[in-house]
Give the backbone structure.
Amino acid sequence: MNTNQLLDHLPAAEQRRLLKHSVQVLLQSGQRIAVQDDPAQTLLFPVQGCVSLVTPLDAHPLLQVGMVGREGVLGAQLLLGVAASPVTVVVQQDGQAWGMPAAVLRQQLPTSPGLRRLLMRYVMVQLRQSATAAACLHFHALQARLARWLLMGQDRARSDSFAVTQESMSHLLGVRRVGVTVAAGSLQAAGLIHYHRGWITVSDRAGLEGAACTCYAQDRASYRLVMKFAPDATS
């Protein structure tokens, strides 16, 4: 089982001790592993696959406000003494994670300065990325937002190809399915992606980055600035 990028940046002795108190957790596509305002029971470090951070609003479908893969962690609010999840978390791509029960986290934090530092920095990363997501939704065109979303998915899949349906993309982007169909069709006509029966292949990574809104690069820069190391990427 591969490790999580945050865990990779812990001192070796601290990493071994924390993994000894963690368990392997399977992530299955469509699974809800956290519900907004419900207490989080486990700190999760994804190592494969990715999850969508979504939020409900009135009777509208869930809207994506973030994405987490092996570059991040779920449940970082536990560091602040807050159990309630700020978002709903839905598995987007099958994978695995290291899970540390909240009670174990409380026991380990006093002797885990590296973990405390990384969790505090990652909370800041999520604050910055949430602010960017809000502005992106308001100001940027759908095709550019879709290109950004596909790059984020490709990074976390760590592959040029990954599964996603137009229906799920429409819900996550907060638009009607026909809008996603048109935007994806334009990207495919430009030779940037190939989409067939729920399977996306990124054909031209550089071209897709050029078609994406500036939020993709901004999120990566924010991560690098705060965490002091770069997030994984396919490029």
In short: The longest strand covers residues 42-57. The radius of gyration is 17 Å. The chain has a mean pLDDT of 93.
